[in-house]
Design a protein that fits this description.
alpha/beta; Uracil-DNA Glycosylase, subunit E; binds iron/sulfur cluster
Length: 199
Amino acid sequence: MDSRTRIEALQQLMDEVSKCRKCNLWRSRRNPVLGDGSVEASIVFIGEAPGYWEDIKGKPFVGSAGKLLDEILRENLILRDEIYITNVLKCRPPENRDPRPEEIAACSDYLERQLDLIRPKIIVTLGRHSTAYIFSRAGIPFKSIGDVQGRIYEVKFWETKTYVVPSYHPAAALYNAKLRDEIGNAIRLVGRMRGELGI
Ligand code: SF4
């Protein structure tokens, strides 16, 4: 699929998400947040859900957690416009509460369609919700993010070898230097894989 077709398909998804009422989160959201970045990306980052600033601006990872993520990406020579970034949920849960299983179930079709359009070689899951979702899709048991973060999991998506790298969510690392280091290690791994895979 060429770039233009993918961009049009993502635009179509954005139109659907803007009108979506499949779960109750549409009632409190200001703006839905589909995703941002390159449709040609080999690396897709998946977070949990939009937060306060994301809800206001309609873009993913633009608040403090996003700034921290940008900083760690820059340290590893990964530019935001080389990757694609999205969340499991496209609308902000009130007070940034955890996503509910029924909301993830209602919203997952959008994420699936995004992934299917981009078909990345590497998926970086940020936090336990996106990790649990992608692990379940790959048939890998998941207990806690602490057990799996910073490791590489080889899976088969779209009949192709795909790598999943779970990481802590940057929001958890805002006031925790140890977690920031752990995220740095996971992203360093992604940078190294990118070189090895030539992507
Ligand atoms: S969170 Fe997803 S399913 Fe729920 S209203 Fe928003 S776009 Fe629709």
